[in-house]
Every structure is written in C-alpha cells, then in structure tokens.
Amino acid sequence: MPGAGLIGRSAVVIGAGMAGLTAARALADSFERVTVLERDTLPEAPAFRAGTPQARHVHVMLGGGVRALGELVPGWEPAMGAAGAARLLTARVRRELPGYDPFPPRDFGGRGFSASRTLIEHILRGEILRHPSIRMFGDCRVLRLLADDGRSSVAGVSYERAGGAVETQRTDLVVDASGRGTPTLAFLQASSGEVPAETVIGIDMGYATTTFDIPSDAGEDWDGVLHLPDAPRRARRALLMPIEGHRWLVGLAGHRDEKPPGDWDGYLEFARSLRTPTIYRAIRTARRAGPIVRFRFPASVRRHFDRLTRFPRGLLPVGDAICRFNPVMGQGMSVAAKQACVLRDLLTARSSAPDPLGGLAEAFFRDAEPIIDAPWEIAAIPDLVYPETEGERPPGFERSVAYATALRRLAAVDADVHRLTWEVQQLLRPASALRDPGLVERVTQLV
Ligand SMILES: Cc1cc2nc3c(=O)[nH]c(=O)nc-3n(C[C@H](O)[C@H](O)[C@H](O)COP(=O)(O)OP(=O)(O)OC[C@H]3O[C@@H](n4cnc5c(N)ncnc54)[C@H](O)[C@@H]3O)c2cc1C
C-alpha cells in the first residue's frame, strides 16, 4: 500500500523534455517515487543535447505556460531571472502582421522572461529535482513497455543504459513524454492493434536560426519582433527574440520551396525579402554569435487518443506525444505545462477513489482536449490557407478565415477586443471566449 494521500508507489516518466519534467512534478505529490528516464546524457550546464534538436531554435513561453509553470514549479521564474534570462514586456515585441506593420502595441501586463530553450529546460530540471520523490537518469533509453494482465495494462518499462546493459523497472504508471510517442504506439499496436486516428496538416516548414550579439544601437521601440506573412500570397516569416547573454536569437521560416537557406548570404537575403526591413536592418551589421542551424517540420500531428474504444491501464502519453503543433506560434511547452496541471488535478481528485488509476488516461484525454483545441486552431489551421498544404479543411473553413481577418481588424481599433484575442493567443483564456455573442455580432458585420 502506498503512503497516506498517495495513489501509487512508483511512476516512470519517459523523456526529460518539457513535457516529461512538468509531468514528473505533477506526479510527485501522488507517488512515493517518480523516476524520469532520458536517453540523452543530461548536461550539468545549459547545453544542447541531440534528443531535442528543436532546442537551437527560438522557444517562446506564452503567458498560459508561465502561469502553469508558476503553479507547478514556483521557483522556476525567479531562478530564470537569477540565471540571466532576458526580461521581456510583451508590448515591446513588435508584431508585424499583414496590413499592420506594426500591429498597434498595447500593454496588457504581459511580463516574463525570454531565454534559450536550453536555459529554460536546465532551470526547470534543477527546480524539479528539488522534490525529494523525483529521480532522473540520463543515458537510459526506454526500449519498450512491459505488459501485464493479458496485455490490457502496462506494468513497467525495459531500458538500455549507456554501456548497453538492459534493465527493467516495474511501476504503477508510465508517462510517455518521449515526444514522438513511439513506446505508446508500439504498445497499442502489439496489444489491441488499435492506434489513434491522426489529424495531419502537412505544411513542410523549414527553419533557419542563428544568434547575434545585441548591438549597442539596437531598436529603441522594440525588444523583439514577430513578422507574419501575408498568406496565402507569401509564406516567409521571422521571429527575433532577446535571450540570456545579451543576444538575439533570430529564426527565419518558410515552407516548401521557400525554406530559408543555411549559408549566411542566403540567410541575410531571406531576411531582406521579408515584407518589412525591420529584421534585416537589425541583423545585417550585428555580430553573429553562432552558426546557422536548420530544422525541418513536415507536419502538425494531433493524435485522437480520446476516440479510442479502450486504452491500457497504467499508461499516459503527454505533450508532443499527443499533439505536435506547428511551432510558429510557440505553444508546445505551454501546452505541456498546462497538461501537467490537468494531470496533477486529476490525481488529487482521485486520491481517495477505490481505484485511482482506473480510467485515468481516459479522464486525462477528456480534460486535455480543450487545452489542445485553442492552440491547434491558432497555429495549425492557418496553414490550411495555403492551397498546397496537405490536410482536410474543416467545414466552413473559408468563412472561418474571413472571420479571423475581421476579428484582427476589430482588435486593431478596439483595445478590449485586442486584449481578449491576446489572452486567447497567450493561452490565458479558452478559445470559447471569442465566441461571446456580442463579439461575434460585431465581427460578423465586418466580414
Ligand atoms: C523548431 C521548433 C521551435 C519550437 N518553438 C517553440 C516555442 O517557441 N515555444 C514552445 O512552447 N514550443 C516550441 N516548440 C515545441 C516544443 O519544443 C515542444 O512542444 C515541447 O518542448 C514539448 O515537447 P515534449 O517534451 O513533449 O517532447 P520533446 O521536447 O521531443 O522531448 C522528448 C524527450 O524524450 C526523450 N526521449 C525520446 N525517446 C526516448 C526513449 N525511448 N527513452 C528515453 N528518453 C526518450 C528525448 O531525448 C527528449 O529529451 C518548438 C518546436 C520546434 C520543432
């Protein structure tokens, strides 16, 4: 029997990315021991590791993510400040949207940190490890999930250590935060044969990112720049954000045959071809402080685990293993942190139930869906505006696009509407806030 208030003796988390770390913290008050197994060597200092290749690219933490992390890991934000993360006022991010270069800057009180993904994760890992129930092991690659009860439930994991030794660990719950979700899919395939349906939006994005020392004569009216394209005419976009060490991290992106190149001349030329000269002017004479790194993002993928007729007991996928968003709106880490809050609340609510782990995954999928809906609409659906994007257009798609354009027009002139759209975009409020009848009527008149 686990101790008082606990629902299990042990939980294992696969992967020490953002979803794994936040899930570990969510589990730690409900299990005697939480073990995180990560295939990479875990660096002592903020450093790149191969298991998260996206970490070299701009990683924005949205307001909803900051709030969720504040609940789960209150020490994270102060520790970020102490580690030198750049302080950022969201009103000081110049937003260049089609028809608005820039969109009217308004201060809605959004304040936070801007930092490299390696620093964000490093600080979070250190804070998570303060919890006495959590242990974390690098160089442990999970090979497969162990089955119990005629394959209807998961009983543990087998994993390989650096030298090749294979070990097993039996556990009450396995959380799959491996990003790709391969352990979960392989288990489902081998047990019931039923894998989740997927919604796939094939965008074929390419990113090219590099760092610069912030020049002493940097722009006076902004600290960061978000540049969005005039879709579907153009696909080139860019994001410039300050990070620790008084540097800018600048990511250029485009899709299909408009991907940014990896050489400096091509990179600069791509920046010059954007609709406005803001980013080009900022970087053309700035001192480059790192190589140009590229990343290809073929498709946004949403797995509908909630639609499966049954799901194994003792298993829970989280984060990118459920839904991988087009990164352009910077949502994945925030959604992972919000999912961890859902998990923590579910575990607390079930602590006195006769079988707290029975049906846990089904309840989690149900509660996590609304958290995924809004960012999915914000990031993935606009990709469908491009005729060449692969994926089924939802019913009434063209009308939704016209509505979104009209909503943006209204937000430009009405500060209250702007605040509302900003809060939804920052994942601070649900998308349903935009369906208020009074607002819908006003927007519809502009369509
Ligand atoms: C180019 C790019 C830019 C992005 N920008 C942003 C942004 O601005 N803001 C934002 O919020 N999000 C952004 N994201 C998304 C974000 O990186 C992820 O959504 C978020 O980190 C959650 O990922 P995860 O933890 O589920 O998976 P991952 O980050 O993929 O982590 C999975 C972890 O599991 C480990 N692992 C995998 N398999 C095994 C195994 N078998 N055994 C043990 N360990 C294993 C991996 O090594 C890794 O550490 C971006 C993504 C990309 C691709």
Count of folded domains: 3
Strand coverage percent: 15-25%
Low-confidence stretches: none
Give the CA-based shape: globular
Bound molecules: flavin-adenine dinucleotide
Count of DSSP-assigned helices: 12
CATH architecture of the largest domain: 3-Layer(bba) Sandwich
How can the largest sheet be summarized?
Answer: 7 strands, mixed
Number of strands: 17
Distance between the termini: 61 Å
Q: Rg, please?
A: 22 Å
CATH class type of the largest domain: Alpha Beta
Strand order of the largest sheet: 4-12-13-14-11-15-17
Quote the CATH topology of the largest domain: FAD/NAD(P)-binding domain
Helix coverage percent:
25-40%
Give the topology string: H per helix, E per strand. Answer: EHEHHEEEHEEEEEHEEEEHHEEEHHHHH
CATH superfamily of the largest domain: FAD/NAD(P)-binding domain
What is the average per-residue confidence, as pLDDT, rounded to a whole number? 95
* Secondary structure category: alpha/beta
Task: Give the structure's gist in a few sentences.
The chain has 447 residues and is of the alpha/beta class. It has twelve helices and 17 strands. The chain has three domains: 8-51 and 119-198 and 302-379, FAD/NAD(P)-binding domain (3-Layer(bba) Sandwich), CATH 3.50.50; 81-116 and 199-298, D-Amino Acid Oxidase, Chain A, domain 2 (2-Layer Sandwich), CATH 3.30.9.100; 395-446, no CATH class.
Task: Report on this structure.
The chain is of the alpha/beta class. The protein folds into 3 domains: 8-51 and 119-198 and 302-379, FAD/NAD(P)-binding domain, CATH 3.50.50; 81-116 and 199-298, D-Amino Acid Oxidase, Chain A, domain 2 (2-Layer Sandwich); 395-446, no CATH class. Helices cover 32% and strands 24% of the residues. It is built from 12 helices and 17 strands. The chain has helices at 18-27, 63-72, 76-82, 117-128, 182-191, 264-272, 278-284, 332-350, 360-380, 397-413, 415-425, 437-446; strands spanning 8-14, 31-37, 86-89, 93-96, 111-114, 134-137, 140-148, 153-161, 166-170, 173-176, 198-213, 224-227, 237-243, 247-255, 293-303, 315-317, 323-324. The strands form 4 sheets. It has a 7-stranded mixed sheet with strand order 4-12-13-14-11-15-17, sandwiched between helices. A hairpin with a 4-residue loop joins strand 7 (140-148) and strand 8 (153-161). It is globular. The protein starts with 7 loop residues before the first strand and ends with a helix. The model has no long low-confidence stretch (mean pLDDT 95). The protein binds flavin-adenine dinucleotide. Residues 14-20, 37-40, 51-52, 54, 57-60, 141-142, 177-179, 207, 295, 297, 319-321, 327, 330-334, 336 line the site of flavin-adenine dinucleotide.
